[in-house]
Amino acid sequence: MPNESEAEFQLGLQSLLSELNNPSPLAVALVSQLNESLWWIKRHTVDKELLLHEAMARLLSKAGSYTETYDNRKVSEALERYLDGRADKDEAEWIDEVLAESKLTLSDLRVRAFKDASKHIKMVDDLIHRQHQTMRHLQRSIDSIDYKSRLIKRMDLELAALESKQSVKGVLSLDAKPS
Amino acid sequence: MTPNHRRNLANQCNALKSTGPRSVAGKWVSSQNSRKHGLNSAPDFESSLEYRVLVELIAEEGFSAFASAEIAAGLLNYRRVMDAYYDTYTSPEPVGEFLRDVNVKASIPIFRELLIPSGSEPQDVRDMAAFFASMQRQEWRKGGPVSRRSADTHKLIRYQRNGIARLSRAVRQG
After folding, report:
1. What is the ipTM of this complex?
2. Is B77 an interface residue toward A (CB < 8 Å)?
3. B168 vs A140: CB contact, 8 Å cut-off?
4. pLDDT tens digits along A141-160
5. Interface of A with B in 73-132 (CB under 8 A)
6. Which of A34, A43, A123, A150 to mutate to test the interface with B (most CBs of B within 10 A)?
7. CA–CA separation, A175 vs B57, rounded Å?
8. Touching check for A42 and chain B: CB below 8 Å?
9. For B18-38, what is each residue's pLDDT tens digit?
10. Which contacts qualify for A45-48: CB closer than 8 Å, 24 or more apart?
11. What are the distances in angstroms from CA A157 to CA A31, A83, A150?
């Protein structure tokens, strides 16, 4: 995605993979999905704040006499910078002016925006919840293959031990046979 | 007649009234419902090289042939869902900026200028303005790009739920 680091994503994946001892291709595939779910959770969490900003910009651009000349994108971008503390003096003054015109403080605006955007915020909460559920499924799957591979290794060892016992017995019985 | 029967009968009568989309535009929109992400169509993983490679790799881990096939199909199916999820998220329905920002009241004289010379009545101008206003309300209700992508992605939750359940079941039963 734009403004996101591929390297950071890969680093997350590598750190998850390093938790596994000698990961199999299936484990790698499942851990990659797990890493992707983590990424989606972060992404959707950012979206919740963006939804609030979007609703705040919408309320501002509809407010007061400004309605006659509103430009939603301009308000939205200016508000974004204002909230991040990156707005220049003119922009900050303009946002303050629009807030005063609409008889709202920043916190009032935030509360009203939260109310307006609640439907979409609930949707994003559902998306985050779904990613959590997905991660649980993936964790259980990874656990199951990890257990399976440990079981296979143990069975291999037991089988090798049995085979060596059998071969020793075979040698002994051959030795015991009268010539 | 019991209350249940009455309710069922009322439901059936009401269902008869609902005949789906009537306008050409409405019919076109509903005809595209299943084409947005393609997740309702049955995938054919078995013929792909990716599937065969996956089956072999999984079988080498000690899974039976049947379990390997199930897990490979589960993995590819889940991947398909997440690709659609990503595509939907990154390309939501675009915001109709003109419709959203147009001042309907201020546009009435323009509608009048356009419609009256062609023989339309003042009522037609009012109807046109009302139509634009309702379209604008719809546009506002859908919200900005973040609201749209959240709403569009939300529709894929059930596919993701089914996809991960299928994959997880295949791995744990394998």
Report:
1. 0.75
2. no
3. yes
4. 998 887 777 777 777 788 88
5. 73, 76, 117, 120, 123-124, 126-127, 130
6. A123
7. 44
8. no
9. 667 777 777 777 776 666 778
10. A45/A128, A47/A124, A47/B146, A47/B149, A47/B150, A48/A121, A48/A124, A48/A125
11. 27, 63, 11
CA distance B60 to chain A (A): 10
- At residue B48, the 3 state secondary structure works out as coil
Question: Token match 């535009």: residue?
Answer: B25
Q: Shortest Cα distance from B156 to chain A (angstroms)?
A: 9
Query: What single letter denotes the amino acid at residue A90?
Result: D
- Quote the CA–CA distance of A50 and A76 in Å, as a whole number: 10
Let me know how long chain B is. Answer: 174
Q: Do B82 and A138 touch (CB under 8 A)?
A: no
pTM for this structure?
Answer: 0.74
R_g over Cα of chain B: 25
Distance CA A144, CA A79 (A): 49
Rounded distance between C-alpha atoms, residue B88 and residue B91, angstroms: 5
Q: How far is Cα B48 from Cα B70, in angstroms, rounded to an integer?
A: 14
Residue at token pair 């009302």: B130
